[in-house]
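User: I want to check something. If I give you two sequences, will you return the structure for each one separately, not as a complex?

Assistant: Yes, each is folded on its own. Here is the first sequence with its structure:
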Amino acid sequence: MKEHTLKKEEMFLSKYATKSKDTEGRLREETPCPMRTDFQRDRDRIIHCKAFRRLKNKTQVFFSPEGDHYRTRLTHTLNVSQVARGIARTLNLNEDLTEAIALGHDLGHTPFGHSGERILNKLNPNGFKHNEQSGRVVDVLENDGRGLNLTREVVDGIINHKINSKPKTLEGKAVSLADRIAYINHDIDDAIDGGFITLSDLPKDAVELLGETSSRRINSMLSSIFRKSYGRNTVEMEKEYADATMELRTFLFENVYGDDTFRNEEARADRMISALYEYYQQNKDKLPEFYIGRLECDNLDTVLCDYISGMSDMYAVKTFSEIFIPKNWKL
Protein backbone atom coordinates (compact mmCIF):
# COMPACT_ATOMS: atom_id res chain seq x y z
CA MET A 1 0.00 0.00 0.00
CA LYS A 2 2.79 2.41 0.87
CA GLU A 3 4.68 1.61 -2.34
CA HIS A 4 1.48 2.18 -4.29
CA THR A 5 1.13 5.63 -2.70
CA LEU A 6 4.75 6.52 -3.49
CA LYS A 7 4.27 5.46 -7.13
CA LYS A 8 1.11 7.56 -7.40
CA GLU A 9 3.00 10.57 -6.09
CA GLU A 10 5.68 10.14 -8.75
CA MET A 11 3.07 9.78 -11.48
CA PHE A 12 0.58 12.48 -10.59
CA LEU A 13 2.07 15.14 -8.29
CA SER A 14 3.43 18.40 -9.64
CA LYS A 15 7.18 18.65 -10.05
CA TYR A 16 7.00 21.39 -7.42
CA ALA A 17 5.18 19.20 -4.87
CA THR A 18 6.97 17.65 -1.89
CA LYS A 19 7.20 13.91 -2.43
CA SER A 20 7.00 11.66 0.61
CA LYS A 21 10.21 9.89 -0.36
CA ASP A 22 12.10 13.21 -0.27
CA THR A 23 11.32 14.10 3.34
CA GLU A 24 14.15 15.56 5.40
CA GLY A 25 13.16 13.10 8.10
CA ARG A 26 12.56 13.42 11.82
CA LEU A 27 14.61 14.67 14.75
CA ARG A 28 14.91 11.07 15.92
CA GLU A 29 15.26 8.12 13.56
CA GLU A 30 12.34 5.68 13.52
CA THR A 31 11.56 2.41 11.82
CA PRO A 32 9.39 3.33 8.80
CA CYS A 33 5.76 2.27 8.78
CA PRO A 34 5.13 -0.43 6.16
CA MET A 35 1.64 0.91 5.38
CA ARG A 36 1.81 4.70 5.66
CA THR A 37 4.11 7.38 4.29
CA ASP A 38 5.82 9.61 6.83
CA PHE A 39 3.37 12.45 6.16
CA GLN A 40 0.38 10.15 6.61
CA ARG A 41 1.89 8.98 9.87
CA ASP A 42 2.31 12.59 11.03
CA ARG A 43 -1.33 13.37 10.26
CA ASP A 44 -2.46 10.42 12.39
CA ARG A 45 -0.20 11.40 15.30
CA ILE A 46 -1.61 14.93 15.31
CA ILE A 47 -5.24 13.79 15.22
CA HIS A 48 -4.69 11.47 18.19
CA CYS A 49 -2.71 13.87 20.39
CA LYS A 50 -4.12 15.60 23.47
CA ALA A 51 -3.51 19.14 22.21
CA PHE A 52 -5.69 18.43 19.18
CA ARG A 53 -8.59 17.27 21.38
CA ARG A 54 -8.35 20.41 23.53
CA LEU A 55 -9.03 22.59 20.50
CA LYS A 56 -12.74 21.77 20.75
CA ASN A 57 -13.02 24.02 23.82
CA LYS A 58 -10.80 26.88 22.69
CA THR A 59 -12.07 30.19 21.33
CA GLN A 60 -12.02 31.03 17.66
CA VAL A 61 -13.80 34.42 17.83
CA PHE A 62 -16.47 34.24 20.52
CA PHE A 63 -15.28 33.50 24.06
CA SER A 64 -16.63 30.13 25.28
CA PRO A 65 -19.64 30.32 22.92
CA GLU A 66 -22.85 28.74 24.22
CA GLY A 67 -24.46 28.44 20.79
CA ASP A 68 -23.89 25.10 19.09
CA HIS A 69 -23.14 26.58 15.67
CA TYR A 70 -20.33 29.03 16.40
CA ARG A 71 -16.85 27.99 15.32
CA THR A 72 -14.32 26.83 17.87
CA ARG A 73 -10.58 26.44 17.34
CA LEU A 74 -11.21 22.79 16.42
CA THR A 75 -13.85 23.49 13.79
CA HIS A 76 -11.62 26.25 12.41
CA THR A 77 -8.79 23.72 12.15
CA LEU A 78 -11.03 21.30 10.25
CA ASN A 79 -12.14 24.14 7.96
CA VAL A 80 -8.51 25.02 7.24
CA SER A 81 -7.73 21.38 6.50
CA GLN A 82 -10.61 21.16 4.03
CA VAL A 83 -9.66 24.38 2.21
CA ALA A 84 -5.96 23.50 2.19
CA ARG A 85 -6.61 20.05 0.75
CA GLY A 86 -8.75 21.68 -1.93
CA ILE A 87 -5.81 23.89 -2.90
CA ALA A 88 -3.40 20.95 -2.86
CA ARG A 89 -5.70 18.81 -4.97
CA THR A 90 -6.17 21.42 -7.69
CA LEU A 91 -2.44 22.19 -7.84
CA ASN A 92 -1.36 18.52 -7.64
CA LEU A 93 0.50 19.04 -4.38
CA ASN A 94 0.97 16.48 -1.60
CA GLU A 95 -2.43 16.31 0.16
CA ASP A 96 -1.10 14.20 3.05
CA LEU A 97 1.59 16.75 3.91
CA THR A 98 -0.90 19.60 3.48
CA GLU A 99 -3.44 17.93 5.76
CA ALA A 100 -0.88 17.19 8.48
CA ILE A 101 0.28 20.82 8.55
CA ALA A 102 -3.29 22.12 8.59
CA LEU A 103 -4.40 19.84 11.43
CA GLY A 104 -1.38 20.85 13.53
CA HIS A 105 -1.14 24.55 12.76
CA ASP A 106 -3.01 25.80 15.86
CA LEU A 107 -2.06 23.15 18.45
CA GLY A 108 -0.24 25.80 20.50
CA HIS A 109 -3.05 28.33 20.46
CA THR A 110 -4.13 29.88 23.74
CA PRO A 111 -7.50 29.89 25.45
CA PHE A 112 -9.63 32.89 24.46
CA GLY A 113 -8.21 33.07 20.95
CA HIS A 114 -5.82 35.80 19.92
CA SER A 115 -6.70 37.73 23.07
CA GLY A 116 -4.98 35.01 25.10
CA GLU A 117 -2.01 35.16 22.77
CA ARG A 118 -1.64 38.92 23.21
CA ILE A 119 -1.89 38.57 27.00
CA LEU A 120 0.82 35.88 27.24
CA ASN A 121 3.00 37.86 24.85
CA LYS A 122 2.74 40.79 27.26
CA LEU A 123 3.38 38.72 30.38
CA ASN A 124 6.34 36.68 29.13
CA PRO A 125 9.56 38.76 28.92
CA ASN A 126 10.57 36.60 25.94
CA GLY A 127 7.24 37.07 24.19
CA PHE A 128 4.75 34.49 22.98
CA LYS A 129 3.56 33.50 19.50
CA HIS A 130 1.01 30.75 18.99
CA ASN A 131 2.67 29.42 15.82
CA GLU A 132 5.99 28.95 17.60
CA GLN A 133 4.15 27.36 20.53
CA SER A 134 2.50 24.93 18.10
CA GLY A 135 5.99 23.86 17.04
CA ARG A 136 6.94 23.45 20.67
CA VAL A 137 3.87 21.31 21.32
CA VAL A 138 4.76 18.82 18.59
CA ASP A 139 8.51 18.84 19.23
CA VAL A 140 8.61 18.92 23.03
CA LEU A 141 5.39 18.89 25.04
CA GLU A 142 3.21 16.15 23.62
CA ASN A 143 3.62 12.49 24.49
CA ASP A 144 4.77 13.19 28.08
CA GLY A 145 7.62 15.43 26.99
CA ARG A 146 8.89 13.28 24.12
CA GLY A 147 7.04 15.21 21.44
CA LEU A 148 5.42 13.70 18.36
CA ASN A 149 8.71 13.50 16.43
CA LEU A 150 7.12 14.79 13.21
CA THR A 151 8.89 15.26 9.90
CA ARG A 152 10.70 18.54 9.41
CA GLU A 153 8.37 19.53 6.57
CA VAL A 154 5.30 19.31 8.78
CA VAL A 155 6.95 21.22 11.64
CA ASP A 156 8.15 23.91 9.24
CA GLY A 157 4.64 24.36 7.86
CA ILE A 158 3.14 24.54 11.35
CA ILE A 159 5.60 27.16 12.58
CA ASN A 160 5.41 29.23 9.40
CA HIS A 161 1.66 29.35 8.77
CA LYS A 162 1.18 33.01 9.70
CA ILE A 163 0.57 35.61 7.03
CA ASN A 164 4.10 37.04 6.78
CA SER A 165 5.97 33.75 7.25
CA LYS A 166 7.79 31.82 4.54
CA PRO A 167 7.25 28.05 4.69
CA LYS A 168 9.74 25.96 2.73
CA THR A 169 7.16 23.87 0.88
CA LEU A 170 4.25 24.76 -1.38
CA GLU A 171 2.12 22.62 0.89
CA GLY A 172 3.03 24.91 3.78
CA LYS A 173 2.12 27.92 1.65
CA ALA A 174 -1.22 26.32 0.81
CA VAL A 175 -2.02 25.95 4.52
CA SER A 176 -0.99 29.54 5.28
CA LEU A 177 -3.33 30.82 2.59
CA ALA A 178 -6.09 28.38 3.57
CA ASP A 179 -5.90 29.60 7.18
CA ARG A 180 -6.57 33.15 6.01
CA ILE A 181 -9.37 32.08 3.66
CA ALA A 182 -11.07 30.00 6.37
CA TYR A 183 -10.99 32.46 9.25
CA ILE A 184 -11.97 35.47 7.14
CA ASN A 185 -15.06 33.81 5.69
CA HIS A 186 -16.17 31.85 8.72
CA ASP A 187 -15.55 34.69 11.17
CA ILE A 188 -17.78 36.83 8.94
CA ASP A 189 -20.49 34.16 9.21
CA ASP A 190 -20.19 34.01 12.99
CA ALA A 191 -20.18 37.81 13.31
CA ILE A 192 -23.36 38.03 11.22
CA ASP A 193 -25.01 35.24 13.23
CA GLY A 194 -23.95 37.00 16.44
CA GLY A 195 -25.54 40.28 15.34
CA PHE A 196 -22.29 42.25 15.23
CA ILE A 197 -22.50 43.03 11.50
CA THR A 198 -24.85 42.50 8.58
CA LEU A 199 -24.06 41.39 5.05
CA SER A 200 -24.66 44.96 3.83
CA ASP A 201 -21.84 46.19 6.10
CA LEU A 202 -19.18 44.24 4.17
CA PRO A 203 -17.02 46.14 1.65
CA LYS A 204 -19.17 46.25 -1.48
CA ASP A 205 -16.37 45.93 -4.04
CA ALA A 206 -14.96 42.85 -2.30
CA VAL A 207 -18.40 41.21 -2.06
CA GLU A 208 -19.18 42.00 -5.69
CA LEU A 209 -15.96 40.30 -6.81
CA LEU A 210 -15.87 37.37 -4.39
CA GLY A 211 -19.52 36.64 -3.62
CA GLU A 212 -22.18 37.23 -0.98
CA THR A 213 -21.86 33.91 0.85
CA SER A 214 -18.84 32.26 2.43
CA SER A 215 -19.08 29.28 0.08
CA ARG A 216 -19.09 31.52 -3.00
CA ARG A 217 -16.22 33.60 -1.67
CA ILE A 218 -14.13 30.53 -0.87
CA ASN A 219 -14.85 29.14 -4.34
CA SER A 220 -13.78 32.45 -5.91
CA MET A 221 -10.56 32.51 -3.90
CA LEU A 222 -9.69 28.88 -4.72
CA SER A 223 -10.42 29.46 -8.41
CA SER A 224 -8.10 32.46 -8.39
CA ILE A 225 -5.35 30.40 -6.75
CA PHE A 226 -5.72 27.76 -9.48
CA ARG A 227 -5.52 30.33 -12.28
CA LYS A 228 -2.48 32.03 -10.74
CA SER A 229 -0.55 29.01 -9.48
CA TYR A 230 -1.27 25.90 -11.55
CA GLY A 231 1.94 24.51 -13.02
CA ARG A 232 4.05 27.12 -11.24
CA ASN A 233 6.30 27.10 -8.19
CA THR A 234 3.92 29.25 -6.15
CA VAL A 235 0.64 29.26 -4.24
CA GLU A 236 -1.06 32.65 -4.45
CA MET A 237 -4.15 34.49 -5.67
CA GLU A 238 -4.38 36.92 -8.53
CA LYS A 239 -3.76 40.44 -7.28
CA GLU A 240 -7.35 41.65 -7.62
CA TYR A 241 -8.63 38.70 -5.59
CA ALA A 242 -5.82 38.93 -3.04
CA ASP A 243 -6.60 42.64 -2.52
CA ALA A 244 -10.31 41.91 -2.06
CA THR A 245 -9.49 39.15 0.44
CA MET A 246 -7.28 41.50 2.45
CA GLU A 247 -10.01 44.15 2.34
CA LEU A 248 -12.35 41.71 4.08
CA ARG A 249 -9.63 40.88 6.60
CA THR A 250 -9.09 44.57 7.40
CA PHE A 251 -12.85 45.00 7.78
CA LEU A 252 -12.94 42.19 10.36
CA PHE A 253 -10.14 43.68 12.41
CA GLU A 254 -11.77 47.10 12.42
CA ASN A 255 -15.41 46.13 12.88
CA VAL A 256 -15.50 42.75 14.63
CA TYR A 257 -12.29 41.94 16.49
CA GLY A 258 -12.09 45.58 17.63
CA ASP A 259 -15.71 45.74 18.79
CA ASP A 260 -16.22 46.94 22.37
CA THR A 261 -17.80 43.60 23.28
CA PHE A 262 -14.60 41.74 22.42
CA ARG A 263 -12.43 44.40 24.05
CA ASN A 264 -14.39 44.06 27.29
CA GLU A 265 -14.11 40.28 27.23
CA GLU A 266 -10.39 40.55 26.49
CA ALA A 267 -9.98 42.81 29.53
CA ARG A 268 -11.62 40.12 31.66
CA ALA A 269 -9.44 37.42 30.12
CA ASP A 270 -6.41 39.63 30.79
CA ARG A 271 -7.22 39.89 34.48
CA MET A 272 -7.77 36.15 34.76
CA ILE A 273 -4.70 34.99 32.82
CA SER A 274 -2.50 37.60 34.49
CA ALA A 275 -3.70 36.42 37.91
CA LEU A 276 -2.94 32.79 37.03
CA TYR A 277 0.48 33.72 35.66
CA GLU A 278 1.39 35.68 38.81
CA TYR A 279 0.04 32.96 41.11
CA TYR A 280 2.17 30.24 39.52
CA GLN A 281 5.19 32.53 39.42
CA GLN A 282 4.95 32.74 43.18
CA ASN A 283 3.78 29.15 43.71
CA LYS A 284 5.54 27.06 41.10
CA ASP A 285 5.19 24.02 43.36
CA LYS A 286 1.44 24.20 42.66
CA LEU A 287 1.95 23.51 38.96
CA PRO A 288 0.98 20.04 37.69
CA GLU A 289 3.75 17.49 38.09
CA PHE A 290 4.61 17.43 34.37
CA TYR A 291 5.28 21.18 34.31
CA ILE A 292 7.29 21.09 37.51
CA GLY A 293 9.47 18.54 35.74
CA ARG A 294 9.83 20.88 32.74
CA LEU A 295 11.53 23.43 35.03
CA GLU A 296 14.64 21.26 34.87
CA CYS A 297 14.92 22.09 31.16
CA ASP A 298 13.20 25.47 30.69
CA ASN A 299 12.85 28.75 32.57
CA LEU A 300 9.72 29.48 34.58
CA ASP A 301 8.21 31.92 32.07
CA THR A 302 8.44 29.34 29.30
CA VAL A 303 6.83 26.68 31.47
CA LEU A 304 4.03 29.02 32.55
CA CYS A 305 3.28 29.75 28.88
CA ASP A 306 3.33 26.02 28.17
CA TYR A 307 0.78 25.37 30.89
CA ILE A 308 -1.54 28.33 30.38
CA SER A 309 -1.54 28.23 26.58
CA GLY A 310 -2.49 24.57 26.74
CA MET A 311 -5.61 25.30 28.78
CA SER A 312 -9.03 25.23 27.18
CA ASP A 313 -11.33 28.17 27.88
CA MET A 314 -13.32 26.15 30.41
CA TYR A 315 -10.25 24.75 32.15
CA ALA A 316 -8.76 28.25 32.51
CA VAL A 317 -11.98 29.52 34.12
CA LYS A 318 -12.18 26.43 36.36
CA THR A 319 -8.56 26.79 37.49
CA PHE A 320 -9.02 30.50 38.20
CA SER A 321 -12.18 29.79 40.20
CA GLU A 322 -10.50 27.09 42.28
CA ILE A 323 -7.62 29.39 43.19
CA PHE A 324 -9.31 32.77 43.61
CA ILE A 325 -13.06 32.33 44.18
CA PRO A 326 -14.17 31.61 47.79
CA LYS A 327 -16.01 28.35 48.26
CA ASN A 328 -19.08 27.70 50.35
CA TRP A 329 -18.21 26.41 53.80
CA LYS A 330 -19.91 23.23 54.93
CA LEU A 331 -19.84 21.25 58.18
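And separately, the second sequence with its own structure:
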Amino acid sequence: MRILIIRHGDPDYENDTLTEKGKREATLLAQRLKKEKIDAFYTSPLGRAKDTCLYSARACGRENDVVVKDWLQEFNHPLTLASGRKRNIPWDMLPTEWTEEKKMYDAWGWHKQKCYRKADMKAAYDYVANGLDELLQENGYVREGNRYRVETPNTKTIALFCHFGLEMVLMSRLCNISPIPLWHHFTALTSSVTTIFSEERRKGVATFRCAGFGDIGHLYAGEEEPSFSARFCEVFDSEDRHD
Protein backbone atom coordinates (compact mmCIF):
# COMPACT_ATOMS: atom_id res chain seq x y z
CA MET A 1 0.00 0.00 0.00
CA ARG A 2 1.23 3.47 -0.84
CA ILE A 3 0.17 6.70 0.86
CA LEU A 4 0.74 10.10 -0.76
CA ILE A 5 0.53 12.95 1.74
CA ILE A 6 0.18 16.22 -0.16
CA ARG A 7 0.30 19.72 1.24
CA HIS A 8 -2.02 22.30 -0.34
CA GLY A 9 -0.72 24.90 -2.79
CA ASP A 10 0.45 28.38 -1.80
CA PRO A 11 -2.40 29.59 0.44
CA ASP A 12 -4.58 32.66 0.56
CA TYR A 13 -5.30 32.18 4.26
CA GLU A 14 -7.68 35.13 4.52
CA ASN A 15 -10.05 33.64 1.95
CA ASP A 16 -9.11 30.00 2.58
CA THR A 17 -8.25 29.30 -1.01
CA LEU A 18 -5.17 29.41 -3.25
CA THR A 19 -3.15 32.41 -4.38
CA GLU A 20 -2.39 32.74 -8.08
CA LYS A 21 0.93 31.09 -7.33
CA GLY A 22 -0.90 28.33 -5.49
CA LYS A 23 -3.05 27.71 -8.55
CA ARG A 24 0.06 27.37 -10.70
CA GLU A 25 1.51 24.94 -8.16
CA ALA A 26 -1.72 22.92 -8.10
CA THR A 27 -1.72 22.78 -11.90
CA LEU A 28 1.83 21.44 -12.02
CA LEU A 29 1.03 18.98 -9.23
CA ALA A 30 -1.98 17.72 -11.18
CA GLN A 31 0.18 17.16 -14.26
CA ARG A 32 2.41 15.00 -12.12
CA LEU A 33 -0.30 13.03 -10.33
CA LYS A 34 -2.28 12.21 -13.46
CA LYS A 35 0.61 9.90 -14.34
CA GLU A 36 0.05 7.98 -11.11
CA LYS A 37 -2.55 5.30 -10.52
CA ILE A 38 -4.37 6.79 -7.52
CA ASP A 39 -7.13 4.60 -6.15
CA ALA A 40 -8.69 7.12 -3.75
CA PHE A 41 -8.62 10.87 -3.12
CA TYR A 42 -9.14 12.24 0.40
CA THR A 43 -9.01 15.88 1.39
CA SER A 44 -9.22 18.24 4.32
CA PRO A 45 -12.49 20.23 4.46
CA LEU A 46 -10.55 23.50 4.30
CA GLY A 47 -10.72 25.37 1.01
CA ARG A 48 -7.01 25.57 0.23
CA ALA A 49 -6.66 21.78 0.47
CA LYS A 50 -9.93 21.02 -1.32
CA ASP A 51 -9.03 23.37 -4.17
CA THR A 52 -5.60 21.74 -4.55
CA CYS A 53 -7.16 18.29 -4.53
CA LEU A 54 -9.69 19.19 -7.21
CA TYR A 55 -6.99 20.16 -9.68
CA SER A 56 -5.50 16.68 -9.41
CA ALA A 57 -8.81 14.81 -9.20
CA ARG A 58 -10.01 16.52 -12.39
CA ALA A 59 -6.77 15.70 -14.17
CA CYS A 60 -7.28 12.05 -13.21
CA GLY A 61 -10.97 12.05 -14.17
CA ARG A 62 -11.94 11.49 -10.52
CA GLU A 63 -13.52 14.80 -9.55
CA ASN A 64 -16.69 13.11 -8.25
CA ASP A 65 -14.77 10.58 -6.17
CA VAL A 66 -13.11 12.98 -3.72
CA VAL A 67 -13.91 12.19 -0.06
CA VAL A 68 -13.68 14.91 2.60
CA LYS A 69 -12.29 13.85 5.99
CA ASP A 70 -12.63 16.29 8.88
CA TRP A 71 -9.56 14.85 10.63
CA LEU A 72 -7.37 16.00 7.72
CA GLN A 73 -7.95 19.69 8.50
CA GLU A 74 -5.08 21.77 9.85
CA PHE A 75 -3.89 20.92 13.36
CA ASN A 76 -4.61 24.28 14.99
CA HIS A 77 -4.98 24.18 18.77
CA PRO A 78 -4.26 27.27 20.91
CA LEU A 79 -1.88 26.85 23.81
CA THR A 80 0.22 28.90 26.20
CA LEU A 81 3.87 27.88 26.25
CA ALA A 82 6.01 27.68 29.38
CA SER A 83 7.67 30.93 28.31
CA GLY A 84 4.29 32.65 28.47
CA ARG A 85 3.94 33.01 24.70
CA LYS A 86 0.44 32.31 23.45
CA ARG A 87 0.26 30.42 20.15
CA ASN A 88 -2.64 29.23 18.03
CA ILE A 89 -0.52 26.54 16.40
CA PRO A 90 1.35 23.90 18.43
CA TRP A 91 4.34 23.55 16.10
CA ASP A 92 5.63 27.14 16.27
CA MET A 93 7.94 26.96 19.27
CA LEU A 94 11.34 28.59 19.59
CA PRO A 95 14.32 26.26 20.12
CA THR A 96 14.68 27.53 23.70
CA GLU A 97 11.09 26.47 24.41
CA TRP A 98 11.44 22.77 23.69
CA THR A 99 14.89 21.40 22.75
CA GLU A 100 16.17 20.99 26.33
CA GLU A 101 13.16 18.95 27.46
CA LYS A 102 13.84 15.29 26.67
CA LYS A 103 10.18 14.30 26.91
CA MET A 104 9.44 16.44 23.87
CA TYR A 105 11.25 13.75 21.86
CA ASP A 106 9.26 10.93 23.47
CA ALA A 107 6.65 9.47 21.14
CA TRP A 108 4.53 8.39 24.11
CA GLY A 109 5.19 11.22 26.56
CA TRP A 110 5.40 14.48 24.60
CA HIS A 111 1.76 15.34 25.30
CA LYS A 112 2.34 15.17 29.06
CA GLN A 113 4.13 18.52 29.03
CA LYS A 114 2.14 21.13 30.96
CA CYS A 115 1.41 23.36 27.97
CA TYR A 116 0.05 20.42 25.98
CA ARG A 117 -1.93 18.96 28.89
CA LYS A 118 -3.70 22.26 29.48
CA ALA A 119 -4.57 22.46 25.77
CA ASP A 120 -5.78 18.81 25.77
CA MET A 121 -3.43 18.16 22.86
CA LYS A 122 -3.55 14.38 23.36
CA ALA A 123 -7.26 14.31 22.52
CA ALA A 124 -6.64 16.39 19.38
CA TYR A 125 -3.78 14.10 18.35
CA ASP A 126 -5.85 10.96 18.98
CA TYR A 127 -8.68 12.31 16.82
CA VAL A 128 -6.31 12.46 13.86
CA ALA A 129 -4.58 9.17 14.69
CA ASN A 130 -7.89 7.35 15.03
CA GLY A 131 -9.12 8.79 11.74
CA LEU A 132 -5.97 7.58 9.98
CA ASP A 133 -6.15 4.16 11.62
CA GLU A 134 -9.78 3.77 10.58
CA LEU A 135 -8.91 4.62 6.97
CA LEU A 136 -6.02 2.15 6.98
CA GLN A 137 -8.26 -0.53 8.48
CA GLU A 138 -10.75 0.01 5.67
CA ASN A 139 -7.87 -0.72 3.33
CA GLY A 140 -6.76 -3.87 5.10
CA TYR A 141 -4.19 -2.64 7.66
CA VAL A 142 -5.27 -2.87 11.30
CA ARG A 143 -3.32 -1.00 13.98
CA GLU A 144 -2.01 -3.26 16.75
CA GLY A 145 0.37 -1.58 19.17
CA ASN A 146 3.10 0.10 17.13
CA ARG A 147 2.59 -1.94 13.96
CA TYR A 148 -0.21 -3.10 11.67
CA ARG A 149 -1.85 -6.47 11.16
CA VAL A 150 -2.32 -7.08 7.46
CA GLU A 151 -5.76 -8.45 6.73
CA THR A 152 -5.84 -7.56 3.03
CA PRO A 153 -2.38 -7.00 1.53
CA ASN A 154 -2.55 -4.68 -1.46
CA THR A 155 -0.65 -2.19 -3.60
CA LYS A 156 -3.30 0.53 -3.64
CA THR A 157 -2.34 4.20 -3.71
CA ILE A 158 -4.33 6.70 -1.67
CA ALA A 159 -3.77 10.45 -1.76
CA LEU A 160 -4.34 12.64 1.31
CA PHE A 161 -4.53 16.40 0.62
CA CYS A 162 -3.93 18.30 3.84
CA HIS A 163 -1.69 20.78 5.70
CA PHE A 164 1.86 20.93 7.06
CA GLY A 165 1.06 20.63 10.77
CA LEU A 166 -1.40 17.83 10.13
CA GLU A 167 1.04 16.02 7.84
CA MET A 168 3.55 15.80 10.69
CA VAL A 169 0.87 14.26 12.92
CA LEU A 170 0.26 11.61 10.27
CA MET A 171 3.99 10.95 10.00
CA SER A 172 4.21 10.76 13.79
CA ARG A 173 1.47 8.13 13.94
CA LEU A 174 2.76 6.02 11.07
CA CYS A 175 6.38 6.09 12.25
CA ASN A 176 5.85 6.14 16.05
CA ILE A 177 7.78 9.39 16.46
CA SER A 178 6.96 12.41 18.62
CA PRO A 179 5.41 15.13 16.45
CA ILE A 180 7.48 17.86 18.17
CA PRO A 181 10.81 17.26 16.38
CA LEU A 182 8.93 16.60 13.14
CA TRP A 183 7.10 19.92 13.41
CA HIS A 184 10.31 21.82 14.13
CA HIS A 185 12.97 20.05 12.07
CA PHE A 186 10.99 19.41 8.87
CA THR A 187 9.13 21.62 6.42
CA ALA A 188 6.79 20.35 3.72
CA LEU A 189 6.60 23.16 1.17
CA THR A 190 3.36 23.98 -0.59
CA SER A 191 2.13 21.36 -3.10
CA SER A 192 4.85 18.95 -1.93
CA VAL A 193 4.36 15.18 -2.03
CA THR A 194 5.47 12.79 0.70
CA THR A 195 5.45 9.09 -0.24
CA ILE A 196 5.03 6.32 2.31
CA PHE A 197 4.95 2.60 1.60
CA SER A 198 3.83 -0.32 3.72
CA GLU A 199 6.42 -3.02 4.39
CA GLU A 200 5.21 -6.57 5.05
CA ARG A 201 8.56 -8.26 5.64
CA ARG A 202 6.87 -11.05 7.57
CA LYS A 203 3.48 -12.33 6.50
CA GLY A 204 0.66 -10.46 8.18
CA VAL A 205 2.82 -7.86 9.96
CA ALA A 206 3.46 -4.41 8.48
CA THR A 207 5.06 -1.10 9.28
CA PHE A 208 5.33 2.00 7.11
CA ARG A 209 8.46 3.59 5.62
CA CYS A 210 8.87 7.06 4.12
CA ALA A 211 10.43 6.79 0.65
CA GLY A 212 10.33 10.48 -0.19
CA PHE A 213 9.56 13.54 1.90
CA GLY A 214 8.21 16.86 0.65
CA ASP A 215 9.09 16.32 -3.01
CA ILE A 216 8.52 19.38 -5.23
CA GLY A 217 10.07 18.07 -8.43
CA HIS A 218 6.96 19.12 -10.35
CA LEU A 219 7.65 22.75 -9.46
CA TYR A 220 11.22 22.61 -10.74
CA ALA A 221 10.03 20.84 -13.89
CA GLY A 222 7.55 23.66 -14.45
CA GLU A 223 10.12 26.35 -13.58
CA GLU A 224 7.97 27.50 -10.66
CA GLU A 225 9.89 28.94 -7.70
CA PRO A 226 9.13 27.05 -4.44
CA SER A 227 7.09 28.97 -1.90
CA PHE A 228 8.57 30.18 1.39
CA SER A 229 5.40 29.21 3.22
CA ALA A 230 6.03 27.26 6.49
CA ARG A 231 9.66 28.39 6.66
CA PHE A 232 11.39 30.96 8.85
CA CYS A 233 14.45 33.13 8.28
CA GLU A 234 17.63 31.29 7.29
CA VAL A 235 19.78 33.84 9.13
CA PHE A 236 18.68 36.29 11.83
CA ASP A 237 19.80 39.38 9.86
CA SER A 238 17.23 38.73 7.18
CA GLU A 239 13.95 40.30 6.09
CA ASP A 240 12.29 36.89 6.03
CA ARG A 241 9.88 36.16 8.84
CA HIS A 242 11.21 35.45 12.33
CA ASP A 243 7.84 34.72 14.02
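Because they were folded independently, the notes below concern the second chain alone. Helices lie at 20-33, 47-59, 114-118, 121-138, 164-175, 179-185, 217-221. The chain has a mean pLDDT of 94.
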